[in-house]
Amino acid sequence: MQFLLLKVINGDFQSGFTVALDVEQVDDCSVTTVQRDFYGTLPPITSPLAELYQDWMLEITSPRPGQARRRRGIRIISTQAVATSYQYQGQGKERKLLRQAMVQWLSSSLPAWQNLEKEILRCLSQSDGETHLIVQIGQSLYQASPETAAILAKLPWQEWPLLQSASPKIHCAVNTCQYSFTPVPTSVTSPTNFTAKVHRYLCPELRILHLIGNSDGIDLEPDRQILANLTKNRGLRVQVTELLQPDYGQLSRTLRRSPGFDLFVYSGHSEASYDQELAVMLFAGRQGVTIPDLQLSFQQAIANGLQVAIFNSCASAQLAEALLDYGITTVVSMQEEVPDPVAHQFLESFFRYYAGQNCSIFTAVQRSLTDLEEFDRLYPGVGWLPVIHQNPRLVPPVWQKLREPARKVRRIGVTSLVITLLLVAMRLLGLTQGLDLKLFDWLLRTHPIAESVDDRLVVVTVDQNDLDILRQNGLQSAEGSDVISDGALAEALDKINSYQPRWFGLDIGRDLPISDGNTRLQEVLQNGDRLFLPCSFPDQQGEQLLPPPAADPNRLAFVNFPSDLDGVIRRQLLFGEFAQGESCPTNQSLALSLALSYLGQENIFSAESPVLTLNNVAFKSLEAKSGVYRGNEVTDYQILFRSLPRGAIREISLSTLFADTENRLNLKNKVVLLGYGHKDKHSTSLEKDIPGVVIHAQMTKQILDAVLEGKPVLTVASVPLELLWILLWYGLATGGMVGVVIMDGVPSGDSKAARRSQQLVAIVALLGVTGSTWLVLWAGGVWLPLASPLLILALLLGLTTVGEFDRV
Q1: Which of 20, 75, 63, 71 is closest to 42 using CA atoms?
Q2: How many CB atoms lie within 10 A of CB 417?
Q3: Cα 741–744–749 angle (5° rounding)?
Q4: What is the DSSP pairing of strand 503-507 with strand 671-676?
Q5: Closest Cα partner for 748 from 311, 355, 454, 393?
Q6: Which residues contact 45 (CB under 8 A, 6 or more apart)?
Q7: Cis ω on the peptide bond leading into residue 222 (within 30° of 0)?
Q8: How far apart (Å, rounded) are the C-alpha atoms in residues 121 and 142?
């Protein structure tokens, strides 16, 4: 925003005034002076401006005969026929003289004044935001001539031609905003009043104001019937408001009434002078009112959505031209005196084509002229009477477009519902699963839990370099083998056991002997009372890992990972059902076995409940079709897996373990896992090619963190709650699109840019609301699907962007 301060420093009306212009920029409530004291001269004035002002004030404040209170309107009384000279009674004369004097004074060609006007225009051209012109009367002028200063502060500065030409980019205020002037836009395509906007876009009725004037010698009943029949139109529903010869106040209030009208029709007598300087609509007693008399009321009606006006009365072209200046789209009038039967036929034909056949206004008028041909012999030249007055910057709306926004809102609602039902069906069929899972990964990556290196777990990895070193030291005999031999594995387990870990788990299968040292390995495996040994159930290919021979079933744990279709591990299998004689006779995973054993030494045991509960922390199992998973994908007892960055758990190599001859690795009282680091690779939401032993350690940590540190356990909502979540998005997305449509009311030249801005605001608002809701739920450990809601939003925004909802 910028302020242009026109400071009237000193002077008088006879010699002129010294003025100066300051330019101030306003940003975030701070004001910065960009330019100071661009001097100019306000020219002297020969007109008695002060006296004219006083005369005008006296005119509008003097009580009228028979009226106890002042009235703010000026009534014009016509006593002559149209064919005679129009004798104006003089009411409003002083106002007209004052306006003319102001225009003449402020249109001076004095160079010092012209240069200042050019500077104001330059400042306007360089500003993209609002500009406010403030006329300030200097304190020195108040002291030298208080009467002159007082008159200057009260003059109608809004009549300055510069302000009229710069409208609507500039606003004017006098003496630090004592008076505020808001110019009327030159074009209006939709309501600017918010209440009228909401009513227009939510209510389907097309609203018509039928103003019925003086009917001396003519019959206006056919006009009333024609408009009444519009309520039976099979297209838009029509609501007609009749005003029968109202007084000035009633007419003004009705025009200003919210939510406004779409179409205005005047039926009755109207008169105009020969020189077309004055035109009036006549009411009871042949009392008349001009369009300028109702300027603010008509401007409010246009701001509330009035788009088309029809003057079905004599010599009404001047009425139409006056109304067109206020920003209405189209006006239809009669150029000269029109016979009553012709007026009936024209109005009936016009609405038959305009409303009944949804023709353009141009086509409706043209076809109506053809229907008037039957009157041509009786009234020669009757086809010349109807005239279209069109704002060249706006396209005249067809009948359906007068209330098209309401239809547009209904289309948005129906389309949104169809899209939502379709996406819900796709969701239930699992067709959006891939996108949902990718969004799950993205959310884990963008909202990670801050992690320090866990001091409860250590992972010992065996990779190819370790095997080469073992081979060099005679502990690995098989050349080129990528698995550790029995002897080396026995040495590694002995070494770990020497640190006195609390528990340790083996993620290396050993169902068959590997090279030398098998006997020694069997002894280590059978004597390791704190060691859990691996096995696995058959996978989809039928492959499985058998337990070591003669292994104690109580120390067996399965190492199966439930992976998704894209091979990513996002779930953790805690319990599995095994049949009698199963080759992997255990129902607990390696991670759960290690966690339960660790917690047992902390006197934390599982509560007797169908749901695994430890220290009041429930690990609720995923159910069939829970989250985004299909029924056959969730078996046994599974929970969601919140994967961690690779460095969240300490990792050491087998070579480092063997090289530690002084027990510096500090593995005492920790959970240690031993497995391969160069094979058995998997993918999680955060990383690819992660050794399985590291994933087991992360799963163990997830359980310990939830029980001992209170970190949220990821879970999914029930299916009804997920559907409610999707319907919430449907409501927000539909409401956002309706908001975009409702707020899409700007001049036609800027409509595309404004619509894009409004859509951006809608997107940000929707994502802000739902994103905040998601973060609250996510912080509590609840995962709700995002694919279907985002697809709803994307499709609706896409349809709105390409203008699909704008088509009939």
Answers
A1: 20
A2: 12
A3: 145
A4: parallel
A5: 393
A6: 13, 101, 104, 105
A7: no
A8: 29
Under 8 Å between Cβ of 282 and 271: yes
CA–CA separation, 579 and 586 (whole Å)? 10
pLDDT in tens, 340-390: 888 999 999 999 999 888 888 878 888 898 898 888 777 777 777 888 887
Over residues 443-462, mean pLDDT = 83
Which strand (E) or helix (H) includes residue 521? helix 518-527
The answer to whether 651 and 678 have CB atoms below 8 angstroms apart is: no
Q: Are 560 and 549 in contact (CB under 8 A)?
A: no
Q: What's the pLDDT score for residue 3?
A: 76
**In this structure, are residues 613 and 619 in contact, taking their beta carbons and an 8 Å threshold?**
yes
CA–CA dist 49, 335 (Å, integer): 38
Contact between 628 and 433 under an 8 Å Cβ cutoff? The reply is yes
Amino acid at 504: F
pLDDT in tens, 145-162: 888 887 887 777 767 888
Cβ(76)–Cβ(289) below 8 Å:
yes
Give the per-residue pLDDT at 211: 94
Q: What is the CA radius of gyration of the chain?
A: 43
Selection from 252-261, 455-464, 478-487, 754-763 with the highest mean pLDDT: 455-464
Residues 330 and 308 sit within 8 Å (Cβ to Cβ) = yes
Q: Is the dihedral of CA 479, 484, 486, 488 positive or negative?
A: positive
DSSP 57-83: HHHHHSPPTT-SS--SS--EE--S-TT
Consecutive H or E run containing 726: helix 719-742
At residue 270, the 3 state secondary structure works out as strand
Give residue 727's identity as a one-letter amino acid code: L
Average pLDDT along the chain: 78
First to last CA, the chain: 40
Angle at which helices 295-303 and 248-256 cross, to 10°: 20
For residues 263 and 205, is the Cβ–Cβ distance under 8 A?
no
CB 533 within 8 A of CB 547: yes
HSE-CB for 483 with a 13 A CA cutoff: 13
C-alpha 765/C-alpha 756 separation (Å) is 14
Count helices and strands (H / E) in the chain.
25, 31
How many angstroms separate the CA atoms of 482 and 679, rounded? 9
Contact 288, 271 (CB under 8 A): yes
Are the C-beta atoms of residues 68 and 261 closer than 8 Å to each other? no
**pLDDT confidence of residue 79:** 34
Query: Residue 338: which of 268, 264, 388, 273 has the closest Cα?
Result: 268
Instruction: Specify the 3-state DSSP secondary structure of 96.
Output: helix
Chain Cα centroid distance, residue 145: 55
H helix or E strand, kind and range, residue 2: strand 2-12
**Cis peptide preceding 168, ω within 30 of 0:** yes
> The tokens of 351 are what?
């609405």
Strands 279-282 and 386-390: unpaired
Pairwise CA distance, residues 430 & 425, whole Å? 9
Amino acid identity for residue 241 in this structure: T
pLDDT digits (tens, 9 = 90+) for 580-608: 567 888 989 999 999 999 999 999 998 88
Listed in sequence order, the DSSP H helices in 372-432 are 399-402, 404-428
Helix H or strand E segment including 787: helix 787-801
The Cα 353–Cα 529 span in angstroms is 96
SS3 686: coil
CA dihedral sign of residues 337, 341, 346, 348 = positive
Q: What is 161-227 written as a DSSP string?
A: HHHHHHTTSEEEEETTTTEEE-PPPS--SS--SHHHHHHHHH--PEEEEEEE---TTS--HHHHHHH
pLDDT in tens, 99-113: 788 888 888 888 999
